[in-house]
From TrEMBL:
Catalytic activity: L-methionyl-[protein] + [thioredoxin]-disulfide + H2O = L-methionyl-(S)-S-oxide-[protein] + [thioredoxin]-dithiol; [thioredoxin]-disulfide + L-methionine + H2O = L-methionine (S)-S-oxide + [thioredoxin]-dithiol
Keywords assigned: Oxidoreductase
Database matches in SUPFAM superfamilies: Peptide methionine sulfoxide reductase
Record InterPro entries: Met_Sox_Rdtase_MsrA_dom, Met_Sox_Rdtase_MsrA_sf, MsrA_MetSO_reductase
Protein name: Peptide methionine sulfoxide reductase MsrA
Length: 219
């Protein structure tokens, strides 16, 4: 633990691990369920969305099971350390959160539908925790890839906050910010629950439905 006697907190750039200029491991070539390449460039017409909603093992499965999603992969985002390893992220010394990258066809599944799945698949009011998983790497976040995604994500947060409040939940703590560097995770994390069907899945929502038609635009 980074701060064992305190609540978890994000490290400053000066406190963060320095990382490395190149990854220590290659990206797995293809999705074990969908059969599509994990790395870009992706086919024309597809879009990219990045979501953090707790342990990325169960979170990734939520998205690869969605019609219109072309591929998914997991990695680390939102911190300071380039090319981090899983153990480094879990130490709290990189500042990253566990992220699912979703490559999707907006003609089949609009970004608004992915936002709805995101909100309903976890509890976005818990800060540096998701269920029994505690640490800064489990915080809720949306990393956007366009002004339209940013606007849609912010509008969806406002709408979902209203229904969560009516159900007795506190403020949403989800970060919404433009996407920075995405560092892919080790091969054994990619499609983990396909490789390990009985593996751990910490994903669980609040049971509160997210309103439909929650975005004023975007794909």
């Amino acid at each position: 633990m980074l701060f064992p006697t305190r609540e978890p907190r994000l490290p400053t750039p000066e406190e963060a691990l320095k990382g490395r200029p190149e990854p220590e491991f290659p990206l797995q070539e293809r999705h074990t369920v969908l059969g599509t390449p994990l790395g870009g460039p992706y086919p024309a017409g597809l879009e990219v969305a990045d979501f953090a909603l707790g342990c990325f093992w169960g979170a990734e499965r939520k998205f690869w099971q969605t019609e219109g999603v072309w591929t998914t992969l997991v990695g680390y985002q939102g911190g300071h350390t380039p090319h981090p390893a899983y153990e480094e992220v879990c130490s709290g010394l990189t500042g990253h959160t566990e992220v699912v990258r979703v490559v999707f066809d907006p003609a089949v599944v609009p970004y608004a539908a992915l936002l709805k799945l995101f909100w309903e698949s976890h509890n976005p009011t818990q800060g540096f925790r998701q269920g029994n998983d505690r640490g800064t790497q489990y915080r809720s976040a949306i990393h956007t890839h366009s002004p339209a995604q940013q606007t849609a994500a912010e509008a969806s947060r406002e709408s979902y906050q209203q229904v969560l409040h009516a159900s007795g939940y506190g403020p949403i703590t989800t970060e919404i910010l433009p996407a920075g560097p995405f560092w892919y995770a080790e091969a054994y994390h990619q499609q983990y629950l396909d490789k390990n069907p009985a593996g751990y899945c910490g994903i669980g929502g609040t049971g509160v439905s997210c309103p439909t038609g929650i975005t004023p635009g975007g794909s």
